[in-house]
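Case study 2.
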Amino acid sequence: MAAGESSTCHIVPTRDSNIFRLRVRLPSSEDATPEVLASSTVVAGCSFHTFYWPACTRYSDMFGIIPTGPVLKADTKVSTHMVFLDKTGTPAPSIGTGFHVDGVLFLCAPREDLKSNCVVDNHFVVLCSVNIEHHSDPAIPPWAPPSSSAENELPHLAHNLAVLWGKQELTDVSFDVGGESLGAHRVVLATASAVFRAELYGPMAESNMASSITIQDMEASTFRSMLHYIYHGSLPDAGKIVVPSAVAEYQHLLVAADRYAVEKLKKICEDKLCADGITVDSVVSMLELAEQHVCSKLKARCFSFLADGDNFKVVATSGEYLRLMQSFPNLLAEARDMFKIPHEKPTIVDPGSHKKTRLC
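Prediction:
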């Protein structure tokens, strides 16, 4: 169904050609059906379809976004991002769960969460952004112009911006993260992240002009590291030996980069975890991280680690691994195909009740 043909779900353009809003009328229990509602739009020169499944399960609503054309060059990467807006019009990444299947981005949220946090005048809004980029050096900040320097030094403007941030001078936005206040420059953040651009310059910007913006579900050290990357094009601990605490911080930073659509930082974290972070004790959490945040390289590296028979014997008998397979049935199917596991349902034993639960 094309935009404008449905009163339930339609596209609302913004001044930014890479961002649009999907405004949705919350269906009543009587008219909520599994019928898929679709709208189309053109973003950054490409056609995109958005899909809405009202109450696709008994309790949740689901959205999807997929590019439909034109065909892009082989060295071009298209990344999409979706986030619910709360009642003030501010991005609320803590509401809902995002995941990718076969190149389609899905966003799913319980109906009650939408009602209590997002619905105004019986409507709620999903903010969608699209980023199209060619392969480039992830060490160079997104706003930096091409440089002919063989030493790959920060360009003069980028260096000055990084110095201003380091001294916390001329900042025009602050973030309250984990009890700490961190200042930054709106234009720099907007250039680096479509989510920041929507939050700071989009329709909800007016509500964020005066007071500090509170960031939930993130440590101050993680947010500070992401800001450091945005300004410097590198991480503050670049080149240091990775220790267990640093592996955990890279995991947290990957989640933050995905949350704010800082794609190059997300790739750096994924590469670091692939190289240094996978052990018998960490592989399950890494596999879950890879599945939740669409990190195909990290997932492949985890499966490669488990392909070692000794590693698989230790990990596959743990309750943590079995619960992960229960939560993500597609991972179970991939594991069966890769490790030639018979298609019988694994069992989890509850130590307290001694009850057995078979995976679906």
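The chain is about 35% helix and 25% strand.
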